[in-house]
Amino acid sequence: MSERTDLRVMGYYGQRETRQFLSIPIGPQRAPSHSGGVIWLKRQYGGADIRLTSRVSLADRPLTLVAGLAWDTMREARKGYENFIGNQLGVQGNLRRDEINNVWNLDPYVQASWNFAESWTLDAGLRYSNVHFKSSDRYITNGNADDSGTANYSKLLPVIALNYQATPDLSLYITAGRGFETPTFNELSYRADNEPGLNFGLKPSVNTTLEAGIKANVGYGQLTAAVFRTYTKDEIVSAGASGGRTTYQNAGRTLRDGVELAWDARLYRNLRAHLSYTYLHARYRDSFCSGPCSGANPQVPAGNLIPGIARNSATASLAWEPNRAGTAVSMSTIWVKYT
After folding, report:
1. Which of 48, 119, 198, 255 is surrounded by the most beta carbons within 10 Å?
2. Which among 157, 85, 88 has a CA at the least distance from the CA of 124?
3. How far apart are CA 283 and CA 293, in angstroms?
């Protein structure tokens, strides 16, 4: 638009289709509210981002301002079928579920970056995230009522960061920000009480992250190191699995502490190397039950580690990247340790 103002417009579109046969016995599928043992999903998704960037000054120091609007949408056609015909198993049978699900968000955001002193930069941002779910049930029969419904989630998400350029090759930073994670349609698909319809009682998780780190040019590459702590409330976890279906619930608060180290370097012309290591201690701060609390289903105590998250992980890669169009070659390895 001008030397001081830029306008960027980005868009994307995609689609996918999935059909999955579940190992659910015939008996449970005879219930009027059961959605069958075959899942058939068709999804279309897309979005756009419009961003205006202006470079001005404040107190005779450079100031960059950004204002934008992000839009994302997804339409899902979800059907369920019995996985049998008569006594024949593993085939697509009668229709047992038919719904159209839509989710979309329209998030305005602003950002500012102010180089208020020779070696100091202050960054701040604010985003209003609002996500909307709508489900339209098209399979309504005796014993299977209309399960249509809507859910709306919104949150104001701030972020702030301070960067100090100690030398041309060394910078230090601290940052704090809030995150917002809504349930996915997969997590909303089934209710923990086994009733029909989507699990609209599931709340989004909200997290606050504090981070400090350094970036340094060392030898042929850049070394980065960071420590962080993330507080999360209403963590979304499994409420149990039965008949090939997993349901989800909010478990309360969690805490994640971590350290990240990384080194990226150009070893020789087109040869690049990458090394990284992450230590992550993730645990529950509140006790909860994965399903109804009972003797057979005891409480998960506070302090337990969050499953599926590696305590230690490392990656290493080596890549040959030609300057011009051609064949790029890379190899990598990943190491994880859960305790």
Report:
1. 198
2. 157
3. 20
CA 189 centroid distance within chain: 17
**Tens digit of each residue's pLDDT (9 = 90 or more) over 105-138:** 999 999 999 999 999 999 999 999 999 999 999 9
Question: Considering only 130-139, 189-198, 278-287, which range has the smallest mean pLDDT?
Answer: 189-198
Q: What's the total number of domains in the chain?
A: 1
Has residue 71 got a pLDDT over 60?
yes
Q: Is residue 245 part of a domain?
A: yes
Residue 239 belongs to domain with CATH number: 2.40.170.20
Name the pLDDT band for 200 (thresholds 50, 70, 90). Answer: confident
* Integer Cα distance of 288 and 245 in angstroms: 20
64 is written with which tokens? Answer: 């960059």
Residue 4, φ and ψ in degrees, nearest 5: -105, -5
How far apart are alpha carbons 188 and 186 in whole angstroms? 5
What is the DSSP pairing of strand 170-181 with strand 149-167?
antiparallel
298 occurs within a structural domain: no
CA 166 to chain centre: 34
The CA distance from 328 to 322, in Å, is 6
The C-alpha atoms of residue 107 and residue 182 are separated, in whole angstroms, by 14
Give the max Cα distance, the chain. 81
Q: Which domain holds residue 211?
A: 45-77+99-250
With respect to residue 263, please indicate whether it lies within any of the assigned structural domains. no
Q: Is residue 170 very low, low, confident or very high in pLDDT (cuts 50, 70, 90)?
A: very high
Cross-strand bridge partners of residue 196: none
Retrieve residue 59's tokens.
């107190």
Does 199 reside within a domain? yes
